[in-house]
Specification:
- This protein is an alpha+beta fold.
- The protein is built from eleven helices and four strands; from the N terminus they run αααααββαααααββα.
- A hairpin with a 6-residue loop joins β1 and β2.
- α2 runs parallel beside α6 and α9 crosses α11.
Length: 264
């Protein structure tokens, strides 16, 4: 069928166009995009040297029977039988500090599923994010945020600059609020259920399993877009719809998230 032969990117563009035109629409049919074609593209984009999760499976090993593995994975996903594994927690140096920060390394198939869900979520929410949001967005980065800030400072009457940091943000995201925020745009319960499963997948550290009742594991491919969605509703919309209209004069918000984040 022609529908089955459509390129993944074309399908995502259609989702993005619908989300852009209907800014209050709740999308109901999304999970069908999590097919073998999508996951094959996600596999090809994985780093060859990426560290293994608790499954100890490398990209090379998984690719030796790629078609068979992806077919089985898609079957489990659509039967709602897929259960993410806990992430393997390691510690890496924190830039600009003598401290270490935690990094979660997902299992290989979890990386593929997270990558697929990330592409779907990004197609929707890139239409919603405010123009002043820069962190972890396609074609944007800290240098773009700095250029925009420099333009504002040099070209406008600026009296105050507030430099704020959310301490331990990725470790403290509230799961219930995360799912409620996603529900504003997503009505496909399968997408919401799998996001929730990843949030609660747990952590393996020094051989012990730790429950994850809050936060998004740093290192997970899906964590950056979830962070942006959470901050879109809790910070950006508050600033643009509540705080900004009550300001005397001009105000702007240039948001950027930690450069030390490293999806595995």
């Amino acid at each position: 069928m022609l529908r089955n032969r459509e390129m993944v990117e074309t399908k995502l563009q259609r989702i993005a166009e619908k989300a852009r035109k209907e800014d209050e629409c709740r999308l109901t049919s999304l999970f069908h995009l999590m097919n073998e074609e999508m996951l094959r593209e996600c596999f090809q984009e994985l780093r060859k040297d990426a560290a293994s999760g608790i499954d100890k499976v490398t990209k090379k090993e998984y690719g030796e029977k790629l078609g068979e593995n992806l077919n089985a994975l898609v079957g489990k996903l659509h039967r709602m039988a897929y259960i993410p594994l806990p992430v393997r927690r390691v510690y890496i140096p924190k830039p600009g500090s003598s401290k270490n920060r935690p990094l979660g390394i997902p299992a290989l198939e979890d990386k593929l599923v997270q990558a697929g869900l990330t592409r779907i979520l990004s197609a929707i929410y890139e239409q919603d994010f405010i123009e002043d949001s820069y962190g972890f967005r396609p074609g944007r980065g800290c240098h773009d945020a700095l250029r925009a800030l420099s333009k504002e400072v040099e070209g406008c009457r600026v009296h105050y600059i507030v430099d704020a940091d959310i301490n331990g943000f990725f470790d403290n995201v509230d799961h219930d609020w995360m799912i409620r925020f996603l529900g504003h745009r997503i009505a496909d319960k399968r997408v919401l259920r799998y996001v929730n499963r990843f949030l609660k997948a747990g952590i393996i550290e020094e051989g012990k399993e730790i429950a994850s009742d809050k936060g998004t594991p740093q290192g997970g491919i899906i964590s950056p877009v979830l962070a942006n969605i959470y901050l879109h509703y809790s910070l950006d919309l508050w600033f643009t719809r509540v705080f900004q209209p009550g300001c005397f004069g001009q105000s702007c918000c240039r948001s950027h998230y930690p450069t030390g984040y490293c999806p595995q």
